[in-house]
Amino acid sequence: MIDIDPSNRNMEPTLFQISREGRTGYALPEQDTPRYDLGESLGPDLYRDSSPPLPSLSEPQIARHFTRLSQLNFCIDTGFYPLGSCTMKYNPKINDQMAADPDFSNLHPLQDEEDTQGALELMHSLQKYLCEYAGMDEFSLCSLAGAQGEFVGLLLIRAYLESLGQSDRNVILVPDSAHGTNPASATLAGFKTVEIPSNKEGRVDVEQLKAALNDQVAGLMMTNPNTIGLFEKDILEIAEAVHGAGGQLYYDGANLNAIAGVARPGDMGFDVVHINLHKTFSTPHGGGGPGGGPVGVKSHLIPFLPKPHVGKKSDDEFYLNLSSKNSIGSVSGFWGNFGILVRAYVYLRHHGLPGIRNNSEMAVLNANFLKALLADEFPTAFQGTCMHEFVLNLKKADTGDQRAMGVAKRLLDYGVHAPTVYFPLVVPEAAMIEPTESETPETLRKFAAIMKQVRRECIEKPNLIEGAPWETPVRKLDEVTAARSPVLVESL
User: Phi and psi of 393, rounded to 5°?
Assistant: First the structure.
């Protein structure tokens, strides 16, 4: 007898458990690629002596498996995704259509330059577009993600300072509200980090920053607007102070979607910037797949950019510069993630400057509208008009003994993704909410109503919150055990 518990959907059998010898639900095409004889170059111990232990399944089982996997995913195409600081923008499908065009998707990075002029022209144009939006003099498209862009930007700063004979500058200043990748990237690039506290307004404490400046400081990493969702109004004074002390300014582009087409980091005094293409220019976000984190620089850092770099010989001829003698070297294979670059290029061409500016303004408007809808029951951590996101202090909200984690898990039962919780660390029981420009007023009103319903449940039905989520494909997990004793491989 099969014991079935309908309340527990975590116990779906694995493919190996339902496998039965003799079932074949697939048909492979005939092999039309000539066999390449490696001879003894690999060594006999690297050759298979048997087929891989794949499960034997019928075609319906295979179809149901992959269909079920697709239904387990929550994404921007299935529901509201207010994940603060992550900017979960809607990805227009025209972007994917263009990236899948055979003239792009069938290119090989080892083809000769004369055969790839269209791709090189696209990348060169994208470099110039990004310069315009960021206020930089040149861009590199090599970095495969925002975090790698941070690392590359810091390597550029280090290479520049070494060229000046200032290799003893080994300190990077980081605000206490910064993304966790900032100090991590600085450490990886060989720097020490010093934290700069926020003031009572939630912005960088300028006096504390000035006190930390000395001849050991290589630079300051920050984003504007900051992670609290507030514009750093003292940015020009900050830039003057850092430059006056001989340091460089690094712009974390995570929040660029709030100001793209409106203000430029280069005009604020930043020397180097990375752009998260998924957060500002609508390429796919996360999931372990390909990404893009282009890095832009002011003129004094151009000689150190990664290679290859796309240059222009004439009006209709482009090339890959592989010979820059001061370059920090290669940071990715070939050209970077070309399909991602195509998507960002299509988005930029489709919207143009008026459209990009409008998107930024709508992102700010949506955030302030949603903040106002929640204001009577959910106080924000800091007062004033926010930019693209805002942070709630759930410790101040009347949610009984329930914490931010309980609220976040219960929201999943209502078909929306939870906001970011417990970040930034300077706000107790933080909930960071970012609606992006993509959402309608109806969606925002519905989300506000759900938040207020969950708050009432926290007071009236705390056990309901404690056990949430109840309606998701996978119920509440033991996250501590999962982190300390992960099971990563199916036992056969």
Answer: -105, 95
30-57 residue pLDDT tens: 888 887 766 666 777 777 778 888 899 9
CA distances from 290 to 81, 178, 205, 254, 310 (A): 20, 24, 37, 17, 20
Is residue 124 helix, strand or coil? Answer: helix
Angstrom distance (rounded) from CA 394 to CA 378: 7
Mean pLDDT to the nearest integer, 233-246:
98
| Residue of 192, 358, 193 whose CA lies nearest to 261 | 358
Query: How far apart (Å, rounded) are the C-alpha atoms in residues 443 and 193?
Result: 41
Domains of the chain: 94-351 (3.40.640.10), 361-472 (3.90.1150.10)
Secondary structure (DSSP) of 155-169: HHHHHHHHHTT-TT-
Q: How far is CA 444 from CA 192, 337, 358, 366, in A?
A: 42, 34, 19, 8
H/E segment holding residue 321: strand 317-321
> Which of 128, 105, 157 lies closest to 311 in space, CA to CA?
128
Q: How far is CA 431 from CA 110, 207, 279, 380, 417, in A?
A: 47, 28, 19, 9, 12
| Pairwise CA distance, residues 242 & 244, whole Å | 5
Q: pLDDT tens for residues 57-76?
A: 999 999 999 998 888 888 88
Contacts of 233 (CB under 8 A, 6+ apart): 203
Element (H, E) at 51: none
CB neighbours (10 Å) of residue 320?
Answer: 17
